[in-house]
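Sanity check record (used in CI):
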Amino acid sequence: MKNILLILFIFTTTFSNAQNSIEEKLTTEIKGINENLNKQNTVLRSEIENLNKFIITITDSLILKEKQNEITELWEMYDNNLVKILQNNLKFAQQNSEHQYSLNLIAMWVSSQAAMNLYDEFLKTYKLFPKEIQNSEKGKKLKLALEKFKNSKVDSKAPLFSLKDINGDIIKLSDFQNNKYVLLDFWASWCGPCREDSPYLDEINRNFKNKGLQIIGISRDENLDSWKKAILKDNMDWINISTVENKSDIENEYFVWGIPHRVLIDKDGVIIGKWKGSGLKNINSIKEKLVDLM
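Expected output for TlpA family protein disulfide reductase:
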């Protein structure tokens, strides 16, 4: 019996060491592939942070606008690099699909802004994994995430919902079809980036609400008092819904992991825009989209 246990221990240890060796090798390879892009993004983040500190001291509105535009351009470069990194990771996973490591490598990206237009590549990569990897715990989670990704991506029919708003009225997405564009804003009172965008959303609301836009704020606040106070303080003069109060799974239906997360739905009930994260880059993209539509 002792000999059997010893053999099992040796086998398990040897297998574990081999797996660790493979993972170390793959990690080194993908780090090398993305090294230059990661270095570029480190520099870009530093430049953005320095500019953010500098604009606090600016009093001239023209210079302020100029520096804000610089920050937006830097974020554009940063985000483009993230897309390239993700594309490299997907290609690498396709070439090394026999390893669990490859699934782990792409799974962490599936809900990111960089993944927004790469659903087909994710699905292609997933299908290359052998059944034992697809059926692993992480494989099943990725499959479920891809299903939510597919159902909530741009050009998909928006998942319908019927939820009670802050005033107790029932809000149905279907009521806005053939009538208004709908901008869903997933947020929370404790989310700093969400609150920083509030003035811009207020501006969007004032400029477009009479042209056919309805904003619907969807909060994940567990403290409903904090939620209500934030709505008043930030002048959120639009429909406001609490996922907690409704015990709603709407975030899962729209594949929302991080916040802020915005979804634009057209009058036919089709998703025509998604933005993950805060900042002027995304806000300006939303504005441009609305100007084109209206």
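Confidence is low (pLDDT under 50) at residues 5-18. If this sentence no longer matches the regenerated tokens, the check is flagged for review.
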